[in-house]
Amino acid sequence: MNHQHQQLITLIQDGLPLVPRPYLAIAEQLGTTETEVISSIQSLLHSGLMKRLGIVVRHRQLGYRANAMVVWDIPDHQVTQLGQQFKQFDFVTLCYRRKRHLPQWPYNLFCMIHSQEQDTVLQKLQTMIEVCQLQQIPHQVLFSKRCFKQCGARY
Amino acid sequence: MDSLDSLDRLIINHLQGGFPICERPYLEVAKYLHISEAVLIERLAQLLDKGLLSRFGLLYHAERLGGALTLAAMSVPETEFDQVTAIVNAFPEVAHNYARDHELNMWFVLATEQPERVPEVIQEIEAQTGLTVYNMPKQTEYYVGLRLEV
């Protein structure tokens, strides 16, 4: 990533200007052209350094009060296959394999389920267990009780 | 919740899928939603002001930019919970922090510009709180589709 890209990221990480030509406004701040800003953003997206342009919602403020982290203790040889299978459920918003901490923490597959109510989360979880035949797999549901901070990573 | 009307919902659902990169991006979205550019800009400003959106802009991969992200958990005694929360949240590297109902009852995400800063922050939190921090870095990402219909 070059210096210009870095400047661009620093400038727009807090949001795009809310003006009809936001990329022109950014260009004026950087002393470059609108075309140049547009092509830099496109190249950052194509290279995969940037995920996308768009919005991130504060899910709790939007009524998604039940945010559950569901953790599974899956045998190592099955974890990739199940991780892939979890994608089919549209209520699963994130799915990662993470490091175990034995003996305190045996769980290696983490997924997030967001919903308006705890009951709905549990119903969705039941669907996952039935569809993927996870009856024998130990799991736990960790509902969030309070959110203290949600500010996103900054650079 | 009650303050969201159907237009707010439409805008939120649409923009979670992306934002155009062209000279008049708001106009393009506005046309698609059959509203005016000015109304779209005004609604976005209101949604941001009300704190319903945490971000509007470029979303990036921290790791690909040379930084690091990890999830960490602690088992915090109830009586010390507020005090430990204050210590943990004071670190600018702490991006999210949630209380969860488990013996490991505090879960936070660390995002650092330099990968070597992750173990340093963990050590500093352990030193200041006297508690063990369990570091659970991601080994494989199977899915990220955080997109919620409202």
Short description:
Chain A is α+β, with helices and mostly antiparallel strands and 155 residues long.
Count of extended strands of chain A? 5
User: How much beta of chain A, percentage-wise?
Assistant: 25-35%
Provide mean pLDDT of chain B, rounded: 89
The helix-strand sequence of chain B is HHHEEHEEHEE
What class do helices, strands and sheet pairing of chain B give?
A: alpha+beta
What fold name goes in the CATH topology slot of the largest domain in chain B?
Alpha-Beta Plaits
Spatial strand sequence of the major β-sheet of chain B:
3-4-2-5
Structural summary, described in words:
The complex is a heterodimer of chains A (155) and B (150). Chain A is an alpha+beta fold and 155 residues long. Helix content of chain A is 35%, strand content 26%. Chain A is built from 5 helices and 5 strands. Chain A has helices spanning 3-12, 22-30, 34-46, 79-86, 118-132; strands at 50-57, 66-72, 92-98, 109-115, 139-150. In chain A, strands 3-4-2-5 form a 4-stranded antiparallel sheet. Chain A is elongated. Chain A starts with a helix and ends in a 5-residue tail after the last strand. Chain B folds into 2 domains: 6-49, no CATH class; 63-136, Alpha-Beta Plaits (2-Layer Sandwich). The longest helix of chain B has 13 residues, at 37-49. Chain B is 36% helix and 27% strand. In chain B, strands 3-4-2-5 form a 4-stranded antiparallel sheet, covered by helices on one side. Chain B has 150 residues and is α+β, with helices and mostly antiparallel strands. In chain B, helix 2 packs across helix 3. Chain B has helices at residues 6-15, 25-33, 37-49, 81-89, 117-129; strands at residues 53-60, 68-74, 94-100, 106-112, 133-136, 138-144. The model of chain B has no long low-confidence stretch (mean pLDDT 89). Strand 3 (92-98) of chain A pairs antiparallel with strand 6 (138-144) of chain B.
